[in-house]
Structure formats: C-alpha cells, structure tokens
Amino acid sequence: MPDRSPAFTPRPLRTARLDLLPLHPDHAAELAPVLADPALHTYTGGEPLDAPALRERYARWAAGSPDPRVVWANWAVRLREAGALVGTVQVTAGPGPVAELAWVTGTAWQGRGIATEAAKALVTEVLRQGMPTVVAHVHPEHAASVAVASAAGLRPTPHWQDGERRWERTKEPAGA
C-alpha cells in the first residue's frame, strides 16, 4: 500500500496580531523588498529574489508538489496593526504523517515575536488537521529560530540533516 499523508488543507488563519493568508503569486511584489536582506539567507543558503522571480516561485508553490503524497502549504504573514506583509510561513506535509514547518520574517520586523506567533498557529493547525508529528530543521547557531522552535512547542532531537538539528513535536494521544 502506498505511503499517504493525511489530507492537509491550507486555509486563512488569524492570531492575536497576524493574518496568515494562503500565499499567492500576487504577494511577491510586496514581499520581495521585505525579504531582500541577504542576511536572511545566512543559515539557509541562497539569495534574495526580485519580485518577478519570487512571483514564479510562489506560482510553483501554489501549483502544489509534484509528489501526490506531499502537500505544500504556504502563507504570507500580515501584521494587522501595520497593514503589511512581514514574512512567510510554510508547512510541507508528508509523505507519511509528518509536517515540516519553516518560517522567515523580514529583517525590519524581527524581534517582535511575529515568527513565534505564526509558528504556534501553524503547529496548532497542523495538529488540528490530524498530522501527528510536526518538525522543523534549525541551524544550531540561528538563535532566533531555535527560540521560535522552542516557543512553538518543538523539542530538539538527536537527528541532523544538512547541518541542521531536527526539532519535533508529537501530538499527545487522546486521554494522555
């Protein structure tokens, strides 16, 4: 029998300060300058993309994974009080019962708990939708992302991938 991940459907999410909007290629124009700082790529590699390249990336993501066992769910993060997009968050669900989280907040918006608030919302949503395991891969020297993972309820594991430590949270069984 093929390994299938549970269905996972991205939907708009709202937290105390944030609107998480399913990412659309039209968000690229506003997000390109927010994500333009090369320092955002210190631990993940790559370089900032201009608006047309970011639009192409977002269109690929919106089209979905070529692997039917995998769901790509991406959100633009809007800080309501500023009326501005300030970053993105994503979940890659599957194959199997695992969802991987990732986040990025523009440099100008860091240090305000935005990534933490968004990551907590995603962990809650992932578990609510039936994915029993949530993971994130975090570079051990990226103190801000270590703090986000910890605040979102993920715990470090002994597992490493490409120089990043796997952080994990497993849904508690009912009645535990």
From TrEMBL:
Positions of the N-acetyltransferase domain: 18-172
Biased composition (Basic and acidic residues): 161-176
Record region (Disordered): 153-176
InterPro entries: Acyl_CoA_acyltransferase, GNAT_dom, Ribosomal_N-acetyltransferase
Protein name as it appears in the record: GNAT family N-acetyltransferase
